[in-house]
Specification:
mainly alpha, binds beta-D-glucopyranose, membrane, symporter activity, transmembrane, symport
Length: 530
């Protein structure tokens, strides 16, 4: 790949010299707080929705239904479009925002994009906590959604670019770790505020989102810009200085040259989104879109958004429902740690495949218990079965937390070449938010129609996505980010067929050109991708 100067090959992979410096770790911790905000928004809506005061003020129809057990089927009491709109409006706004965020990440940098996100969050939180009517509530959610669009665009890219290759996976997952901490924090807050008498507990729940919002804004002011983004914007000297600082060595020339080269190719691309549709980018695009759709079709957000509502539906009391949501939130955080530890060791594919088996099993068991025990107008889920359902939900959530949760964000952020990385990340965020929106908007209605069968529906999807991983998802562990095209896509048994027009962008004598001629190999056996 790059001529000379590389550290010794390790397990078939080539690495640039890089120490794990405190500044890298600190920058990553600060940037990752963008995930806290996303997680808090995911977690908070289900909890406030289960609070009678909140329902009575904003959704009197639903409130009426929850108060009259004879009026409706257990499975249908929360089936209300405007209630679902409260949850889902955030994701709709976020997906529009990502297109603006793509422009800002590429032209202004990763750091200012995070700052923009922080400001949106702060304003959204204030409006939400002060909401007097449904309109204010939705406007607040829309602004939070814009924040999510900007943050989810910039943060994963920032982390993947600033991290040394060998711990890139682990550092990137800090984003997801923060998402899960945000969800847990929201669950804990809801558990506490639900006990507040006087009808303002929900305001506190929505207002405390200000805490992660402030952290992100402050973090965005303090972090360094990534060398990749500086070099992409022709600030070569600054890029080199930052690279030296974050890698903790003077021997940064090989990595610097590789980023310069990636950036040169990136500049030839005048229309990143149009370029994304070129045949040679189809593999990354297909993987990105599939990863996001699959992530949402695991059914995770049915649990994350609506766990309290779901537990209430199957007959837990209101307190037990919020309490169970806290347990699940904690399992989510701890299991994400497993991923941070193992992703750069066992690899991405292994985690996804193991989790597929575990999620499938848990969902089928949940469907069977609910099918037998929860009828439309009676739910006799005794204590033992109740505990079993919570256990199975924990089994499912833990598997998600070390697989599709973090890897849904990691893999797309590390597979695109610099030329299409921002545009690719926009597609990632956008598809994620579209399907998160679909889940938020549809789940309570699907629960009403499919009843316990909803969990069989998700388990079928888990089966499909696991087959996809077996055949079509290449391993990206330990591959430097600017070498993915050469070392992953051009070597994959299926995707390599889309790579033949890559000569177009490889000027004579460049690295890419050189590698094409030599059929440079990374030591990865394509057959092992199967
Ligand atoms: C997903 C969210 C989900 C969260 C759960 C994230 O990776 O994108 O939709 O709520 O994981 O931990």
């Amino acid at each position: 790949m790059t001529a000379g100067g590389l550290a010794p090959a390790k397990a078939g992979a080539v690495e640039f010299e890089a120490k794990i410096t405190p500044i890298v770790i600190l920058s990553c911790i600060m940037a990752a707080t963008g995930g806290l905000m996303f997680g808090y928004d995911v977690g908070v809506s289900g909890g406030v929705t289960a609070m009678p005061d909140f329902l009575e003020k904003f959704f009197p129809d639903v409130y009426g239904k929850t108060q009259d057990p004879n009026l409706n089927s257990n499975y249908c009491k929360y089936d209300n479009q405007s209630l679902q709109m409260f949850t889902s409006s955030l994701y709709l706004a976020g997906l529009v925002a990502t297109f603006f965020a793509s422009w800002t990440t590429r032209n202004l940098g990763r750091k200012p994009t995070m700052l923009i996100a922080g400001v949106f969050f702060l304003v959204g939180v204030v409006i939400n906590a002060a909401a007097q009517d449904l309109a204010m509530l939705i406007v607040g959610r829309v602004l939070l959604g814009c924040g999510v669009g900007f943050a989810n665009q910039a943060v994963p890219l920032f982390l993947s670019e600033i991290a040394p290759t060998r711990i890139r996976g682990g550092l990137n997952i800090l984003f997801q770790l923060n998402v899960t901490i945000g969800i847990l924090f929201a669950n804990l807050v809801n558990y506490g505020t639900a006990k507040i008498k006087g009808g303002w507990g929900w305001r506190l729940s929505l207002g405390l989102a200000g805490f992660p919002a402030i952290l992100l804004t402050a973090g965005a002011l303090l972090v360094l810009e990534t060398p990749n983004s500086l070099i992409e914007r022709d600030r070569l000297d600054e890029g080199k200085t930052v690279l030296r600082k974050i890698r903790g060595t003077d021997n940064i020339e090989p990595e610097f040259l590789e980023i310069v080269e990636a950036s040169r190719m990136s500049k030839e691309v005048k229309h990143p989104f149009r370029n994304l549709l070129k045949r040679r980018n189809w593999p990354q695009l297909a993987i990105t879109v599939a990863m996001q759709i699959f992530q949402q079709f695991t059914g995770i957000n049915a649990i994350m958004f609506y766990a309290p509502v779901l537990f209430d539906t199957v007959g837990f009391g209101s307190d037990a429902s919020l309490y169970s949501a806290v347990i699940i939130g904690a399992v989510n955080v701890v299991s994400t740690g497993v991923s941070i530890y193992s992703v750069d060791k066992v690899g991405r594919r292994m985690l996804l495949l193991e989790a597929g088996v575990q999620m499938f099993f848990a969902q089928v068991v949940i469907a069977i218990i609910l099918g037998i025990k929860v009828k439309d107008n009676s739910s006799d889920l005794h204590r033992g079965f109740g505990i079993l359902v919570v256990l199975m939900v924990c089994t499912f959530v833990s598997a998600f937390a070390w697989s599709w949760g973090p890897l849904g964000w990691l893999i797309p952020s590390e597979t695109f070449p610099l030329e299409t990385r921002s545009a690719g990340q926009s597609v990632t965020v956008c598809v994620n938010l579209i399907f998160t929106f679909v889940m938020a908007q549809a789940f309570l209605s699907m629960l009403c129609t499919l009843k316990y069968g909803i969990f069989l529906f998700f388990s079928a999807w888990v089966l499909i996505m696991s087959i996809f991983v077996v055949f079509l998802l290449p391993e990206t562990k330990n591959i430097p980010i600017e070498e993915m095209t050469e070392r992953v896509w051009k070597k994959h048994w299926f995707w390599k067929r889309f790579m033949d027009d890559n000569q177009e962008v490889a000027a004579p004598g460049t690295k890419a050109d050189h590698s094409l001629k030599n059929g440079h190999s990374n030591g990865l056996d394509p057959a092992s991708q199967l």
